[in-house]
Amino acid sequence: MTTSGLLELAHENLQWPPREQVMEPTGAGPSIYATLAREKLGRNIRNLPEGEDVEIGVLSPNPEGDETEAPIALVCDFKRSISENTLREIYKLAWSFSRTPSFISIEPNRIRIWSCYETLPSESEALKPVDKVSRKQLESLSQPSLSQQAAKTLRLHWLSLVSGQFFQKNNKRFQRKYSADNLLLSNLKSVRKQLAKLNLDYDTIHDLLARIIFIQFLLDRKDAQGHPALSVDLLASLHESGELSKPYQNLSEILRDRDDTYRFFRWLNDKFNGDLFPGKGATQVERDREWRAEEQKVTQDHLDLLAQFVSGNLKMETGQLCLWSQYSFDVIPLEFISSIYEEFVREENADKGVHYTPSHIVDFILDGVLPWNSTNWDLKILDPACGSGIFLVKAFQRLVHRWKQANSG
Description:
Blueprint (H helix, E strand, L loop, with lengths): L5 H9 L4 H5 L4 H19 L8 E5 L13 E5 L6 H14 L4 E6 L2 E6 L15 E4 H6 L7 H6 L4 H5 L2 H5 L10 H18 L4 H19 L11 H9 L10 H5 L2 H15 L11 H14 L2 H12 L24 H13 L10 H11 L20 H17 L3
Parallel strand pairs: 2-3
Antiparallel strand pairs: 1-2, 3-4, 4-5
Helix pairs in contact: 3-4, 9-10, 9-16, 17-18
């Protein structure tokens, strides 16, 4: 047995899939989720004090199937017990992953299951698993007669998990509206309304919101050594080079200075040359005109509101503070940007019958026409009814996967 050894016991006594089908599922769809989990979370977890030996996988309803079906749980298996501080950071990552309803942490003497469909506890609140099972309880299941304690453990039996019975019994702890992506979307919709009340047009609002998400992604995205793409040191160097007027510590501070905000935006645009910034005209004159047009519309009041938002000090319509600091933006799904577009445009076109396709429907359709398990990557894809672009984004992900399969040697 490797790592904690409890996955093997869960397979023997709770009928969970074999360990290798959790860590390396053979089905095309589950394999994609497992790989994504390792790529998105692995580096961040291994940079934590007790996370260097973690093994990451997914508990899938059918680990040998090719369908892109959302896993039951993200699984982290540890060789040793971990502290609550480390667990809290990993739980935040699992919650931000937004692709599974639950997170299962496995240590040498216990298995615990946590909800990814509820708000994260504050720093002052204790972590409370939805359920747990000890090694002793698991081992007792192999005895000829079930003790009362062992029978209780059957709540985490495979049939209970895969049938959804476990989640139904604990439905108060599994509310999809409290997942990271849904809460962030709700927060964005709230700040969008507040910016609109300050007489800023929706197109500019959407550009600004997409921009701060991108910047926060760069601040959160860390390399193998744990260094973010946008660091405090980099911000200090921008001050030293004259790009910024002072050495800022975070995005909120930059947004408090309108001139520096737009200097920073221009610097990012030069580095990344994307569609998130103005200045996409064919000539320098046209590009400068676009930048000036936006700068004339965006006031310090608008930027102050965004600064409050990213610092977590802005009240939402619910009366609660926004949860910006709780998200790990390098883990949140890429297609989340599409869902933002869908929700915003749906509100604007509610009376026009405009509708957009949910992510799981896109996966279902692409499983039929562009399955993962192929090496044919040199294809052209047309989406004549393109709205948010989610079909094209997800189709491109599959072509990249196929290219990797074709060039794995």
